[in-house]
Amino acid sequence: MIHKKIIIGLCALAALLLFLEIYFIFFYHNASFCNDGTAYNSCSNAKPYFCINGSLMEKASACGCSNSSEINSDSCVSKYQTEPKDITLSYTLRGEEKEIIFTAYSGLYSYLSAIPHYISANENPVLLDFKLRSINEEKQKELLMPLVIQIENAAKSKEDQARIAISIVQNIPFGSSNKTIQIGGIKTPYQRYPYEVLYNMSGICSEKSELLFFLLREIGYGTASLYYTAENHEAVGIKCPADRSVNNSGYCFVETTGPSIITDDQTEYIGIASELSSVPNVIEISDGISLGNNLYEYDDAKSLIKIREKAKKNDGVINYLQHIQFERLQKKYGLISFGFYKFT
Hints:
Blueprint: H1 2-31, E1 49-52, E2 55-58, H2 60-63, E3 70-72, E4 75-77, E5 84-93, E6 96-105, H3 106-113, H4 127-136, H5 138-154, H6 158-170, E7 180-183, E8 186-189, H7 194-200, H8 205-219, E9 223-228, E10 233-239, E11 251-254, E12 281-286, H9 296-313, H10 320-333
Antiparallel strand pairs: 1-2, 3-4, 5-6, 7-8, 9-10, 9-12, 10-11
Helix pairs in contact: 4-8, 5-6, 6-8, 7-8, 9-10
């Protein structure tokens, strides 16, 4: 009888130890890091942020500041943080409409607007050089990082963080700057920096793409520019499985000029009276992690493409089931009037 009780006790103890091990792996371990991968009670790689109870918070007194700002209590203060204004950035995640309030500063906006928009001919610049100069501007990076942190705090998974960043940029209205610059005596349209796109809440495809390159890179993703020469159109490539990518490039198509689904490159675009038909030039911007194999966007994009093809063949008419499916996708991704194709 005693022997039996000992066996039962040992079994109960083993079960308890197994439960505690599972709890530690799935609960404690997952809860001991912030959403950017920083361990609890540690400084993030992004100064001055500190991981506290699952969220990244400013703590300059412990984590320090960059060389271009000064410590003020637990914040880093830049001389370009003058004349602040709050900007509402909207996004849709699985049908839920949400927003992030981002503080932008006239001081940095004015500084960026005054930077010469050329690279010395002696440097033999290529398109990538211009893009990296725009994305890597140090003073801009410091005041854009708070937006990256807000995105990371808003979602646990990297894929959801990417979805939020993509939706934010897509929901910034399409529009060109009314400024021009002169290069070699020739007037050319002014190309805004990513921060200027946020400040103006307006951008064309190349400008909005550069903002998204920055956000996705800082979240951790590999990115590339997808430039369609024939259509003079730029989209963002986000690293993904080759069989899901554009021409097996390893980068999935992301439109920035308006709300759309990752990998949907069959819609019509602002300024282009037809679908994209040329093969894009793929220019790697940043190395990083990849989207997974089972992203639900892959199937949703295929479904929307089929509905769109059906509508085009039938003068805009689709059947009831397709209409229900279309409305579900419309709500899920916040699809609105977009280019020459109107979602109604």
